[in-house]
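Comment thread on ticket #2218

A.B. wrote:
> Attaching the input chain for the structure job we discussed in standup.
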Amino acid sequence: MKNLTDIIYKYKETQFSWGELDCCIFTASIVEEFTGRKLPYWKDVLNYKDYKSSVKTLKNLGCNKVEDLPSIILDTPKKDISKVKLGEPVYHVDIHGEGLLGICNGAQAYFLQEGGGLTTRPIKDCSYCWSID
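C.D. wrote:
> Ran it. Output below, let me know if you need it in another format.
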């Protein structure tokens, strides 16, 4: 496996862009690079240009919220954040009540957030995670 911090820091100067590099695409891209595992179909279906079209795309995939996407792509249920491991996707609700997907990198999780670029949050402030094994 590659060094997770190096993979994450490739996005240090990157800005959020719906359907090009948002929290969903950021998270899936890192999981693929970190594990070397090709995740099914996400590159073909996460085609949207703004918040409104992202909601429609997620609904078409069977997601009620962004937190449902990792279960579909990884084919694994969400688990309590207390069971998180390095490199696993995590879910955090920001101060605006919006859900964000990100990546666990030890005690911190990294997210690509609209208006803020690459940001961190303590793992203890996240709600869920998903296995990448």
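A.B. wrote:
> Thanks. Noting for the ticket: Helices lie at 4-9, 23-35, 42-45, 51-60, 69-74.
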